[in-house]
Amino acid sequence: MTIEASTTGGAAPRRIRLGMVGGGQGAFIGAVHRIAARLDDCYELVAGALSSQPQRAAASAAELHIAPDRAYADFHAMARAEAARADGIDVVAIVTPNHLHVPIATAFLDAGIHVICDKPVSTTLADALTLVEKVRSTGLLFALTHNYSGYPMVRQAREMVAAGELGEIRLVHAEYVQDWLTTDLAATGQKQALWRGDPAQSGAGGALGDIGTHAEHLGRFISGLELAAVSADIQSFVTGRRLDDNAHVMLRYANGARGLLWASQVAPGNENALRVRVYGTKAGLDFRQEQPNQLWLTPLGQAPRLITRGGSGAGSSAAAGHATRIPAGHPEGYLEGFAQLYRDLAEQIHARWEQRTPDPLACSVPTVVDGALGMKFIAAVIESSRAEGRWVSARL
Amino acid sequence: MTIEASTTGGAAPRRIRLGMVGGGQGAFIGAVHRIAARLDDCYELVAGALSSQPQRAAASAAELHIAPDRAYADFHAMARAEAARADGIDVVAIVTPNHLHVPIATAFLDAGIHVICDKPVSTTLADALTLVEKVRSTGLLFALTHNYSGYPMVRQAREMVAAGELGEIRLVHAEYVQDWLTTDLAATGQKQALWRGDPAQSGAGGALGDIGTHAEHLGRFISGLELAAVSADIQSFVTGRRLDDNAHVMLRYANGARGLLWASQVAPGNENALRVRVYGTKAGLDFRQEQPNQLWLTPLGQAPRLITRGGSGAGSSAAAGHATRIPAGHPEGYLEGFAQLYRDLAEQIHARWEQRTPDPLACSVPTVVDGALGMKFIAAVIESSRAEGRWVSARL
Amino acid sequence: MTIEASTTGGAAPRRIRLGMVGGGQGAFIGAVHRIAARLDDCYELVAGALSSQPQRAAASAAELHIAPDRAYADFHAMARAEAARADGIDVVAIVTPNHLHVPIATAFLDAGIHVICDKPVSTTLADALTLVEKVRSTGLLFALTHNYSGYPMVRQAREMVAAGELGEIRLVHAEYVQDWLTTDLAATGQKQALWRGDPAQSGAGGALGDIGTHAEHLGRFISGLELAAVSADIQSFVTGRRLDDNAHVMLRYANGARGLLWASQVAPGNENALRVRVYGTKAGLDFRQEQPNQLWLTPLGQAPRLITRGGSGAGSSAAAGHATRIPAGHPEGYLEGFAQLYRDLAEQIHARWEQRTPDPLACSVPTVVDGALGMKFIAAVIESSRAEGRWVSARL
Amino acid sequence: MTIEASTTGGAAPRRIRLGMVGGGQGAFIGAVHRIAARLDDCYELVAGALSSQPQRAAASAAELHIAPDRAYADFHAMARAEAARADGIDVVAIVTPNHLHVPIATAFLDAGIHVICDKPVSTTLADALTLVEKVRSTGLLFALTHNYSGYPMVRQAREMVAAGELGEIRLVHAEYVQDWLTTDLAATGQKQALWRGDPAQSGAGGALGDIGTHAEHLGRFISGLELAAVSADIQSFVTGRRLDDNAHVMLRYANGARGLLWASQVAPGNENALRVRVYGTKAGLDFRQEQPNQLWLTPLGQAPRLITRGGSGAGSSAAAGHATRIPAGHPEGYLEGFAQLYRDLAEQIHARWEQRTPDPLACSVPTVVDGALGMKFIAAVIESSRAEGRWVSARL
User: B316 in contact with D at a CB cutoff of 8 Å?
Assistant: First the structure.
């Protein structure tokens, strides 16, 4: 159990200097990123282009203890200025609507600055592939915040599959179900509903892009399998909605495993009901993100076991222990899982500074390639649905 | 709450005379039918062709207090003899392997005897359709034991949907998951695995026929919707297995609702994990047969409510009350649900005897048409899977 | 797994002839006893004094297929007449209000007839002790329907404790919580509330007698420990109520284990929330009667295990298997648990007839001594509460 | 929903300067306090006496970015020096073993510095009462980290009781159950077990002081009732253990309500199973800290409702909203609950600086008086247990 990233002896390494684009007053996910960055005390937020409106950018920065000379209204200016400073930022967090992810990431990568980007990585597959090349060519780090992969029990699930405890994997069932778009929320002017429902800002996927890619990634993250093809049926149940609000997808993995994926934002009574079940020849696993401190392990022919974060049944999991801050029975949640990606990226950055190999346990942070796979997934699902269920490749 | 079918005053109506075909020593489902018939004291088991082996038939009958002269080894002989007796059976319960359902049912229908038949109704769609016609032409009763429809909370769910409490239905998610065929059980000589894995005895569906049709029926029973088409991907994960052991199905209903259905017998840790979720524009419902005394109701914008059988939140449900024997907090289970179909059929038979309209609450017992729809579902799923996911009609 | 008591080969033994006292039209628990007796087909109900009102007794009997000449209005007459018949009843089930249990039981014991009696056994400890002596002197069987002890998972829990799987037992926590007396239900004329609230019919205990003795018995049944002393605080929260509606009790067992017991009928939201937790030096067990197909086993230093009735994790339990009718995942409930006591008593009766030792697995049916211990428990709790928590012996 | 304490417009108020005593390398709760202080960005840790060993104190400070001149090995020196600095700490967090709480708190209060103190507040009731007077006389703020009172659902529960939604409260059931002391852990040299098992460092209570006071406080916090008297039975099950490892307590509240409290560290399978149930004449509430995003509300005569943090059913709760950072379905946990006390104290401090009334929602942070009540509870329980269950006053 690691309470803080910095308690391993010796003076604390300097905090990583973090900048942020987006996330000004009233934004949601920006604040989550800031708490995540703060939680383990590995970062300090020192610069930001928190809004493209200068006044709001300045006010937002002031609220966050960012010095006025590092409060920008333009991300290009920020990238240039920060790259030029001796104490410039080491990494930028991008928390804008989706359509701005690629241009912003490109600007900072070009300036030699690592990137943390909210998902989905882009609005088109083509953009995502271009960005993959950009990241490769610069050699910089690019973390995509598929945050659910930071939960200790998810890390343990992945570790157990990799260790063969489930046998050969046959089935992957992933679902992410919400209800907040059951009615025509955009018609009420709700900001989130508006931009997420606008293809120009969101991309081609509605529920697919917003939550479907989380389910797709988590299934892949835990199972370790390559998704080969999809057959899908997507819908927009609410009249006038331009993007899907429900998606049913059948999955085929490269190893012959099969699966189902369901993403919905119109199922009353569901908040963020992300669940992944994986079944192999020897055992099954069941993870629900709303109960992230628990993981069911169901070995064939034995009683189901409820593994808890830090608990007796999880004792030997290096991967879960790595992602744990407090003892069993004291629940960790969404913010801690999110923070884990920040902490792991910090380790990767420190390893570069110190010219050493990073801790392997810190190396599962989703990357730009995961982002491109997510965009491919969205494109393939839409194509299959339009082709009345024809199987479409999900490979890059 | 009705404790016994016969406590409504006046002398008890005479018990319905029941015969049974199949269900001899060592059989499973026959014993379940017998308990179901006995539970509410509406039937007496007086005749049987419990086995096609004469010695075993006689021994089985003796164990069950059946008089030797009414212990048959041949169902044709039984149908003839019982039809000829003044005290002959009123109804026969068919609990043999699937391929015998239609010939046996036909023999008893031809003899003027009502039929209770285990599911699936037949091994081919054509046979099922022929049987539909036979039932129609005789005017006799034919109950198909999709037993999960007898649970009080299932009855209540159906009633709530019909009353519009969920609004317009958009989504139906049904799954029935087991693990008992994760390994090659047939290779060990296990009897159930052998005949269920043999197309000649089971029909074209493996998991599909055994449990998939339960899920299909229950989704339809609760939602009240007509299934229009399916797109499917089925598998046999275990080498050498001739029938499917896993089925993924996308659903389209006649009203535009969509759904997913998953049937599996290779998911370790699942016993009889039958679950149906239905979502409409106003609320959702979630039923799990392993917790049959509970029903989640999730009205949009309100806290989820846990309705319990007989409990405060279920107070006004006529349909649930009709199917309930004991008060809230004292769980009823599988046998009681099964018995409900027997009790409801008894009411239908008594109503015929008394030349009156049966209690409408006793009229949801699945029929031969449900059986035919199930066979159509199996055929459509297999056709779609072979056609790589093409949508195939599920209508008769 | 035993589907029916009679499927072990050979002709079925004759059904045990059952009589019933109490349980006429409108009664609740009588109907439960009848279903329990019927479920495994070991009994036939042939006589009854179902009501002390002759007309109602006759009408109730007619509804239950009891011959008119065996429908009595007086239990003394019934005991005499049945004892005199060649085909007289073998056993009587007593399902009247509490204050009649002892006189009725005495009459039938004196007539040489076995007794099944609802709990609590009497209204005073003195009466219970007298009855213990009566049973001993006659050598007849006396079963007390502490029905929760018939659940397979309760049987398994008891077996696991006895086998030492929990180590030395340190803690027993039992609670039985309801809400049906939260308001002054008796004031509305509700029949159950009226007689249960009347000391003359119910005895000195309210919630204590009605449900507290169930919790006391179940804790003792599972743990196998002797209750040594209690310290208690009981209340009647509703104005005008003459008996307790809530009881808090601290427990000391003979081996040094300690416990808590809570019985309440004024806790809104609780139906029949009977739960027993037992903790030893090596593991714990947690059973909830509203989920009777499950049992949590929590070995120290290992992941908690969810044992299910008939499931993989319960495979080797002879005691649970003995009490099981249908496979895992298909829930059994209250009626099946109740029926288990009837089935086990049938085995005891058959063994007597056949002059053999009964199956040890059928020998845990609660007896008149358990009834006396329950009455002692009630008396000790009341005495302790009056003495402001002084510890009072619970030993006979 | 408040994402960050500082997003209400205008420049951020300066961060509160925090010092810490205790919590050096290898300590647990100190790290929790630091994360809690950091989470909402209201504090900066600038000074510490993290260990009484100078070398370790310096090394610990270096790891935490504390300047060398503000790394102390002696808390008296720290109090003096910080009080003398223009940029001295505003508040000190005390995270040492229990016996040091009072002297350290006194030193900082005498220096005019606010105090955050881990619980229990002292090792004796007398010390606690002296400290109450000290806090009163200085007029400074004193926050006791009964952290579970920071959970949004606990805040909501308290608010609902206060609003009369449960009617008059009759029953309070609190339990806090662990298993980590099931064996003689101290004998293995485990540090936590050693000091917590030593009366000189821990005080008179074992499980009572460590977790029992949390249960006592939470029951009182939610119910709003004054605890009047206790009757108890405490044990040390493990040979050689000097303090209790299990406590059973019956409770009487000033308004006539009754309750039970169970604290145990020897119940295998329990991690931090803190649960509080409160029942009134109109409804009940059930909160479990291991599922802190959920609260069951059980109105009499209605279906139980599962209220979730931020969810539809919790929409109108000002108290829960105040303590919430992220939307429903994304779980918050222990650290967020802990952080809530820090954030609320920050509001109280800012209000003092700004000479205004603090937000009433931020005013439920436990105080030194709660600490004294906890010590009185411990003393009363021990006295009652020694007096064989005699009721002992729990009032100060």
Answer: no
